[in-house]
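task queued by scheduler; priority normal; single chain, no ligands, no partner chains; default sampling; output format set to C-alpha coordinates
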Amino acid sequence: MNYWLLKSEPSTWSWEQQCQVQSEPWNGVRNYQAQNNMKAMAVGDRAFFYHSVKEKQIVGIVEICKAFYPDPTDTRWGLVDIKAITPLPQPITLETIKKDPSLQHLALVRQSRLSVMPIDAASWKHLCHLGGLSS
Protein backbone atom coordinates (compact mmCIF):
# COMPACT_ATOMS: atom_id res chain seq x y z
CA MET A 1 0.00 0.00 0.00
CA ASN A 2 1.16 3.52 -0.80
CA TYR A 3 0.25 6.71 1.00
CA TRP A 4 -0.61 10.15 -0.35
CA LEU A 5 -1.83 13.61 0.56
CA LEU A 6 -4.63 15.33 -1.41
CA LYS A 7 -5.21 19.05 -1.02
CA SER A 8 -8.60 20.67 -1.43
CA GLU A 9 -9.88 24.16 -0.84
CA PRO A 10 -12.76 23.62 1.62
CA SER A 11 -14.86 26.22 -0.21
CA THR A 12 -14.60 24.04 -3.35
CA TRP A 13 -14.75 20.52 -1.82
CA SER A 14 -14.55 19.94 1.92
CA TRP A 15 -14.06 16.94 4.17
CA GLU A 16 -17.69 17.31 5.24
CA GLN A 17 -18.83 17.08 1.61
CA GLN A 18 -16.58 14.06 1.03
CA CYS A 19 -18.21 12.30 3.98
CA GLN A 20 -21.66 12.86 2.46
CA VAL A 21 -20.96 10.75 -0.68
CA GLN A 22 -20.15 7.08 -1.28
CA SER A 23 -17.18 8.02 -3.46
CA GLU A 24 -16.13 11.01 -5.53
CA PRO A 25 -13.76 11.67 -8.43
CA TRP A 26 -10.73 13.72 -7.39
CA ASN A 27 -10.89 16.28 -10.17
CA GLY A 28 -9.47 19.63 -11.15
CA VAL A 29 -5.81 18.60 -10.89
CA ARG A 30 -3.97 20.42 -13.69
CA ASN A 31 -0.34 19.92 -12.75
CA TYR A 32 1.80 17.26 -14.43
CA GLN A 33 3.66 16.22 -11.28
CA ALA A 34 0.38 15.87 -9.37
CA GLN A 35 -1.12 13.91 -12.30
CA ASN A 36 1.88 11.55 -12.30
CA ASN A 37 1.32 10.98 -8.59
CA MET A 38 -2.33 10.15 -9.30
CA LYS A 39 -1.27 7.71 -12.07
CA ALA A 40 0.85 5.89 -9.46
CA MET A 41 -2.14 5.41 -7.11
CA ALA A 42 -3.72 1.98 -6.73
CA VAL A 43 -7.06 0.88 -5.37
CA GLY A 44 -6.68 0.50 -1.61
CA ASP A 45 -4.00 3.17 -1.22
CA ARG A 46 -4.72 5.67 1.55
CA ALA A 47 -4.44 9.46 1.46
CA PHE A 48 -4.67 12.30 3.89
CA PHE A 49 -7.41 14.82 3.07
CA TYR A 50 -5.89 18.27 3.52
CA HIS A 51 -7.85 21.51 3.75
CA SER A 52 -5.75 24.16 2.02
CA VAL A 53 -5.94 27.97 1.79
CA LYS A 54 -7.12 29.32 5.17
CA GLU A 55 -7.24 26.14 7.29
CA LYS A 56 -4.00 24.46 6.16
CA GLN A 57 -4.51 21.21 8.03
CA ILE A 58 -4.95 17.47 7.55
CA VAL A 59 -8.53 16.67 8.54
CA GLY A 60 -9.20 13.08 7.47
CA ILE A 61 -8.19 9.91 5.65
CA VAL A 62 -9.57 8.69 2.34
CA GLU A 63 -9.02 5.55 0.31
CA ILE A 64 -8.45 5.30 -3.43
CA CYS A 65 -11.41 3.27 -4.70
CA LYS A 66 -10.88 3.67 -8.47
CA ALA A 67 -7.48 3.92 -10.12
CA PHE A 68 -6.49 6.65 -12.59
CA TYR A 69 -8.79 7.11 -15.58
CA PRO A 70 -9.30 9.88 -18.18
CA ASP A 71 -11.19 12.99 -17.09
CA PRO A 72 -14.35 12.97 -19.23
CA THR A 73 -14.31 16.79 -19.35
CA ASP A 74 -10.73 16.94 -20.66
CA THR A 75 -9.02 13.66 -21.60
CA ARG A 76 -5.55 15.23 -21.44
CA TRP A 77 -5.97 14.91 -17.67
CA GLY A 78 -7.19 12.18 -15.33
CA LEU A 79 -8.99 11.37 -12.12
CA VAL A 80 -9.02 8.86 -9.28
CA ASP A 81 -12.06 8.15 -7.14
CA ILE A 82 -11.82 8.39 -3.37
CA LYS A 83 -14.01 7.52 -0.41
CA ALA A 84 -13.87 8.85 3.14
CA ILE A 85 -12.46 6.46 5.75
CA THR A 86 -12.15 8.43 8.98
CA PRO A 87 -11.74 11.96 10.28
CA LEU A 88 -8.65 12.75 12.31
CA PRO A 89 -9.57 13.11 15.99
CA GLN A 90 -7.00 15.91 16.12
CA PRO A 91 -6.45 17.80 12.82
CA ILE A 92 -2.76 18.37 12.05
CA THR A 93 -1.89 21.92 11.08
CA LEU A 94 0.76 22.83 8.53
CA GLU A 95 2.47 24.78 11.32
CA THR A 96 2.77 21.58 13.39
CA ILE A 97 4.16 19.69 10.39
CA LYS A 98 6.71 22.41 9.62
CA LYS A 99 7.93 22.41 13.23
CA ASP A 100 8.52 18.63 13.24
CA PRO A 101 12.12 17.83 12.19
CA SER A 102 11.15 14.33 11.05
CA LEU A 103 8.70 15.75 8.48
CA GLN A 104 10.91 18.36 6.78
CA HIS A 105 11.43 16.13 3.73
CA LEU A 106 7.72 16.05 2.82
CA ALA A 107 6.58 17.76 -0.38
CA LEU A 108 3.98 19.54 1.77
CA VAL A 109 6.86 21.47 3.34
CA ARG A 110 9.14 21.72 0.30
CA GLN A 111 6.61 22.16 -2.55
CA SER A 112 3.73 24.04 -1.01
CA ARG A 113 1.78 24.41 -4.29
CA LEU A 114 1.72 20.70 -5.17
CA SER A 115 -1.84 19.38 -4.71
CA VAL A 116 -1.23 15.61 -4.82
CA MET A 117 1.88 14.20 -3.19
CA PRO A 118 3.32 10.94 -1.85
CA ILE A 119 3.81 10.33 1.86
CA ASP A 120 6.36 7.72 2.93
CA ALA A 121 5.23 4.96 5.31
CA ALA A 122 7.18 6.24 8.33
CA SER A 123 5.76 9.75 7.92
CA TRP A 124 2.25 8.33 7.44
CA LYS A 125 2.52 6.46 10.73
CA HIS A 126 3.92 9.53 12.51
CA LEU A 127 1.22 11.82 11.11
CA CYS A 128 -1.51 9.35 12.07
CA HIS A 129 -0.10 9.37 15.61
CA LEU A 130 -0.09 13.20 15.65
CA GLY A 131 -3.69 13.13 14.46
CA GLY A 132 -4.79 10.79 17.25
CA LEU A 133 -4.94 7.54 15.23
CA SER A 134 -2.95 4.34 15.69
CA SER A 135 -2.20 4.37 11.89
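post-processing summary
- The chain has one domain: 3-130.
- Residues 70 and 76 are 7 Å apart (CA to CA).
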